[in-house]
Amino acid sequence: MAFSSTTASFLSLCRPPRSCLPSASFPSRVNLNLGSKNSLSVGAISTQASGGIAPAIALTDTALKHLNKMRSEKNEDLCLRIGVKQGGCSGMSYSMEFETKENTRPDDTVMEYDGFLIVCDPKSLLFIFGMQLDFSDALIGGGFSFKNPNATQTCGCGKSFAAEM
Fold first, then answer.
1. Alpha-carbon span 25 to 22, nearest angstrom
2. What is the DSSP pairing of strand 78-86 with strand 92-100?
3. pTM of the predicted structure, to 2 decimals
């Protein structure tokens, strides 16, 4: 039985179900024995969210601090929706917007960082799983930056990317 790179890529996107308890422990590497000659090793992201489960989207401390500041200026209890949409120089662009927690859909993935919630729809998550969101207050080139392991090319501005699935 042979596995193509497409199968291996799909398996690397697997994550624990949303209903897992935060105290659940998952190994960083799983080895699957598929017969006498075939085996598959699947790794997990090493960045930890609160609760000890590797997050689908990681936040740096700087990004979390800036997002909390932005949210507090709105004087509402909001979460951040991160997604992907068609467009941009490279074919896809990142989207981020604050929304009320009531707008969270049942199939969304919800990640919590010290009380700050990030929400992502399942289609977008396929393209940004493992991404790290960072923030810089530099005068030139400052703002949010996306470190996406699934991007095969990015635009010079860093807000647009291409990915193969």
1. 8
2. antiparallel
3. 0.65
Backbone angles phi, psi at 83, to 5 degrees: -155, -175
Reply yes or no on whether the pLDDT at 20 is more than 70. Answer: no
Backbone angles phi, psi at 131, to 5 degrees: -70, 150
The phi and psi torsions of 79 (rounded to 5 degrees) equal -115, 165
Instruction: Report the alpha-carbon distance of residue 85 to residue 95 in Å, rounded.
Output: 7
- CB atoms inside a 10 Å sphere around CB 56: 21
CB 79 within 8 A of CB 71: no
Question: What's the CA gap between 13 and 123, in Å, rounded?
Answer: 12
pLDDT band of 10, cuts 50, 70, 90: very low
Per DSSP, the residues of the chain read: ----HHHHHHHHT----TTS-TT----SEEEEE-SSS-EEEEE------TTSSPPSEEE-HHHHHHHHHHHHHTTS-EEEEEEEEE-STTSEEEEEEEEEGGG--TT-EEEEETTEEEEE-HHHHHHHTTEEEEEE--TTT-EEEEE-TT-SEE-TTSSEEE---
For residue 147, name the pLDDT band (cuts at 50, 70, 90): very high
Range scoring the smallest mean pLDDT among 37-51, 66-80, 89-103:
37-51
